[in-house]
Design a protein that fits this description.
By secondary structure, this protein is an all-alpha fold. It has 11 helices and no strands. The two termini are 32 Å apart.
Length: 256
């Protein structure tokens, strides 16, 4: 009879990915309440303040709604994934997982998927609550079923990169918080791009939040945007692949 480790070595990548996703969901099952609370409460507070400033301008309220969804995903994925990777490194969990016959890229993608699944309830609650609070009519496109997970994976990839390069959990938490603020403030996420300076509009093209908010406005509100939807999707895919690759390169795995 073959040794269990030998059997694991023959497992294809999708099986590794599924097993690691279930493992991560099991490990963080205790965190779903905090994830739900932070992913709903903080964006709604921010949205309430922004809605007061926007008054009854429908176009601006649309930015507030979709920006709220982006903010919810930022809290639920980027912050949680960065903290999870820094914790796994400090606790020795990464050293243990490295002894198993699994690929590090499978661990990174599985962690991103696990926290994406945990973030979906808070994201949907924020969207529904925002619609009711702002009184906006949604024009939902079926493409939102592709856009929302893609945004979550992109932000989770950024969180993974922050988590593996940070020297401690405290540093990872601080860096991820600053990054969340930068992504929200320096770009057309909560405010129209016409309200931003030309320099910020140009720099914002490097931000995943810019493409996330643009894609959501087009798939949730049915309004055109200066960035076509197909460009948003391609940009998010490219950013996801780049961030996951960088995180994999920086992750200390079996001394490599």
């Amino acid at each position: 009879m073959s040794h269990p480790i030998q059997l694991m070595r023959t497992q294809p990548f999708p099986i590794q990915l599924l097993d690691l996703t279930l493992l991560q969901l099991t490990n963080v099952r205790w965190a779903w309440r905090g994830t739900l609370l932070l992913g709903v409460l903080a964006p709604l507070i921010f949205m309430g303040l922004a809605a007061g400033l926007a008054q009854s301008n429908t176009a601006t309220l649309g930015y507030v709604l979709t920006g709220n969804v982006v903010l919810s995903l930022l809290f639920s994925t980027l912050g949680n994934v960065s903290n999870n990777f820094s914790y796994m490194r400090e606790s020795g969990t990464l050293d243990y997982l490295a002894t198993l016959p699994v690929q590090r890229v499978a661990l990174i993608i599985a962690t991103a998927i696990a926290f994406l699944l945990l973030s979906l309830p808070s994201t949907l609650i924020s969207l529904v609550a925002g619609k009711l609070l702002l009184g906006l009519d949604l024009v939902v496109s079926p493409l939102v079923l592709m856009v929302l997970p893609l945004i979550g994976l992109t932000l989770a990839g950024l969180g993974a990169l922050i988590g593996v390069i940070s020297r401690s959990s405290q540093e990872a938490g601080s860096v991820s918080l600053v990054m969340q603020m930068v992504l929200v403030v320096f770009g057309p996420v909560f405010v129209p791009d016409q309200s931003l300076s030309p320099l910020i509009r140009t720099v914002s093209l490097l931000s995943p939040a810019t493409y996330a908010a643009s894609a959501l406005r087009q798939t949730l509100l049915g309004v055109p945007d200066r960035i076509p939807l197909w460009v948003d999707v391609l940009a998010l895919i490219a950013l996801t692949l780049a961030l996951l690759w960088l995180a994999g390169q920086r992750l200390d795995w079996r001394g490599k």
